[in-house]
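Let's do one together. I've listed all components of the complex below, 701 residues spread over two lines.
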Amino acid sequence: MGEIYFLFWLLQILSLVFLLPIKDDRGRFRSFPAMTIGLVVLNTLVHVFVYYFLPGLIGQDAWADVMMQMLLVPVDITNGEGLGALSMVTSAFLHSSWMHLISNMFILFFFARKLEDVLGPLKLGLFYLTCVFVSGVGSVLAEMALPATQGMVPSLGASGAVMGIVAAYLFLYPTQRIRTLPLIGVIPIPILIPMPAWVFILYTVAHDIVGAMLEQEIQAYGYTTLVGWFAHLGGVIAGLTCLYLFLPAEILHYRHQIGEEV
Amino acid sequence: MHDVTQVAELLRRGIAAAKAGRSEEARQVLLHVTELDERSEQAWLWLSGVVESLADRRVCLENVLTINPDNPYARKGLRLLDQQGVAAPAVEERCPHCQSPVPSSGKTCPNCGQLLVVACPRCGEYVEVQHVVCPDCGELLGDLNDGAHYYLGLAQAYVEHQRFALVQEVIAIAETVAPDDPQVLQEVAALHEKMSHTDLAVAVYQRAIERYPETPVFYARLGAIYRRRAMPDDARAMYERAIQLDKDDPTTLVDLAELYIEEDLLEAAYGLLERAVSVDPGYAKAHLLLSDVYRRLGKDRLAVQHYRQAAELAGSESVVGRQARRELVRLQPSLPERHTQGWGETLRRASALMLPLLLAAWVNAGLVPWEISPAGWVALMLAAVGAFLWTCAADVPRNQMMRAIFGEAGVEGFWRKALVGAPGVLLWGVAFGLILGRL
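Okay, and this is what the predicted structure of the assembly comes out as:
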């Protein structure tokens, strides 16, 4: 029990301050980040349609059935039931609340634009899709191994894929200075804290690791935090590994120098 | 700082003398108290009873009321004086410039025409020129004894506080106070430039050159204005004259070099920039321009060396630093063709396209790879062909196969790219659809 309390309070301390990235020192070369904007718009449109129009169109009961199909249920994946891989894609475009959507889209918009500069819009879209699958697989494998839920709890949200984009930014520009606005809850503290990208991402990953450890501990007692920590960590792994395949040879070769190019 | 107990003792003595009818002694002691503590209400009140004239009594009582507006004795005393029609004594004011008497409400001296009051740059209140600091807001106004520089300082402050209407007046006074001072001329011209009154600045610089034809800075500044006005010939003449007079001014050397670079006179620019970096090795812009010249002369190795120095000297925030770093990246040697167009690169880039499909097929098989259905394998094979063609069209257009088919240029041009890429994208898309649809 002592370990659970320690992890719980550590998670509370890490969750107390949310660092919202506002600006980095990198200029951009493409005039319009089409894929980034497209992903943000698509996520928002899906959210509006699913929660505000769909129930009226098909009725509440049918809506609940459709939602269950579109969410990622780990046990369905391993049993080969439901929509399978498609449910990973659909669940990545669904969010539980406006706050969930806005926080994910803000981070996506901040980091994906800079990645789109390097990859181009089409490759960014494919990379995002890869992150969706890898984070989904990470979530399924971890959730199936946990004792209490046994993969029965459905998950949704773009955060796994967004973490992949964030980790890819770290892969490319580890020392890039990011200015962040600290939020306590939803209250912004009006100071911009500059930090290197690796510190920002380390803070975020540490948050996820502590959350994942706590999830593992409390599931032994039949509880869950209802946060997809393992999907986040899967996204980080996707961002750090899969980007290798997507980068042009020149950028891969001169990767250590492009961080300095502004 | 005076001793509080000493002031209290003096006050006690003064009041005792007044009570005893020793008016002269009381007046001297109480005046001394007011000098030591000008906000002593008691001292002013008792002093009002021993001063010689009614006008002085009024001043004392008014001071009491300034300190304590509710003092009943002072109020009553002033009321009595009002009934008697006693006015405050008139203080004769004098012009600080010519010492002639001036009216208290005048803005300029009727005798010498100089300013008696100036507007405070911060709060806008009119303040007598003798004040070093604005009594209303505490803004530093400067010392009138500094002559023209007092007015130039004020003009500078007016510009900073965007009180542009007041600038010309004080500039004109500065010019009349010290018409031949070269530093004043330079500052006046710089102020005109700052206010975008370029014609006036040019006129001042030209006047300065007439008076001081051997001072290089006037030519250099005038050259800079001509350059901004897109008058390169005039600018060059001015810069060249400035360099004749001072061969080692790095700023002018760099300015003229920049002009030469714009006109493609690279050798001339090179000479100037070499001198600029030898005079001031810490001048980042000189290194940056020298690198540009080296690059355009085909000496990339030297260009890289000076770009590095410019980037180091200028830091990451400045425009020069950013430009130097961008050029450094641009000057990186291209990777050999075998790295960018080989089979390894083709495989790597095609794998990126295959990755989401492989993952999707694996997920559909319940995360057990050997459970992937035959239809799934067919779709994956279709996807592999599609990914290969797509990669050949978009990322590795001159790999060995494409060169064998299309010649040395590989998949170049819109039609070739469409011929190879469109089937690739189509196959890939169909395969992805098949896998997601679990067909």
